[in-house]
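[INFO] parsing input record for Thioredoxin-like fold domain-containing protein
[DEBUG] input buffer:
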Amino acid sequence: MKMRMLPILFIVLCFDAKSQVAIENITSNRGIKFEDSLNWEQIKRKAKNENKFIFVDAYATWCGPCKLMEQQVFINNEVGTYFNDKFISVRVQMDQTSDDNQRIKNWYPDAIELNKKYKITVLPTFLFFTSNGSLVNKQVGYKSVSQLIEDGKLATGSGNKTVNPYKKFEAFVADYSNGKKKFKVMPEMIQVAWNLGQYDLYMKLSKDYLTYLTELKKDEWSTTSNIEFLASSTLVDSQSPFFVLFYPNGERTDAIMKKKGYAAAKVNWVIMNEICTPFLSNFYKGKDLQMLMKMEPAWDSLNHRILAEYNAEYAASALLKAKCEYYRYSNNIPAYVNTFSARMQRRDMDVTNLGDVALINECAWMIFERSDSAEQINFAITWMRDLVSQKFDAAVSTELLFDTYANLIYKYNMLFNKGLSDEALKWETKALEKAFNDKNESALKDYRTVIEKMTKKEPTW
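[DEBUG] output buffer:
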């Protein structure tokens, strides 16, 4: 099965495991000019001599978003103009393969050192240094042209954010070590500690800040920065005094954050983390996938367990999500598709959330590949119609959405003679145009093949 996952922030996706993200693929006359003959020490010396910053793209051969950065962003002339003027740039491969050339092999020790020092746990990771080698920004995940340029401006001090949090971090940590706790900026510094992989410090700062918040009046908890911290903190569970901001009445938090469902997202995470995941983990023990395919957990028991602490709306949502996770894990695709469809009918998925968008697209593609049910295919067409009408940032590979939508319409037309072939061709052409603009050669080949089959009235599944 061809997985239809999108390149989203903080999720590392894979294309072909054997593909090599080769530096030579980036042309020398446009886009970012990456150094390909200098080692790390020489890069730093050159940056210092030319009074430039340093930009490091940490990637892996198996990383899908890394490949997309190469194909869509690094070759952009606007990106190249900015980065070539301000930075000495280098790409560093973080994994090792039998196909590596000598230049990549020479960088093995530096790659290991960079990984160790800067805690590179998500790919791609982008590191920004001063000419003296001090880290001033760290970003992860696929970036659009505008996002990458803004990250570069943040590093150089010319961006929209007047103060770079990474530049404040070293002084903050020094003061903190001497007993001076700056609670006003601590939420921001907690996030920097996490981004840098300083997890012990992250936990220590988080606990200190939670203690500080308990000493405040409850009304003072409800600032945007505090709510963002509390919503993202794994230390805030159902037993935390701060959980009242999210349950049972999260409307005020939604209003403060100006996003409906903000509080519910935290509650759903807590339910999954405290109830559903332990329930499933216990059920998995001693069973292989063949056994799981033939078994069903005691869903009624799980439902009663959730209802003991949460209302029926949360219980229904959590139960469906737990079932989806179970059926996906056990590779019970028919049950997964049916349960996912039930989630969609309940509108449990957020089409503005890139993680949910990826899951919707993936399940719709499963239906396209595996189902001949008019009802299921029509459900998937409805889901995808909602997605293709959304305005997404360039970080989303919308050609995948267009391609899924087009293929679903085409299959529905072929199986049930609905006269929608022109509509299918229109959306597949949109996918082709997007792939052409992004210079995505592999996708171009696939979409041309699909269009040819549609034109000849041949199955595309």
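[INFO] The beta strands are 53-59, 87-93, 125-129, 135-140.
[INFO] shutting down worker
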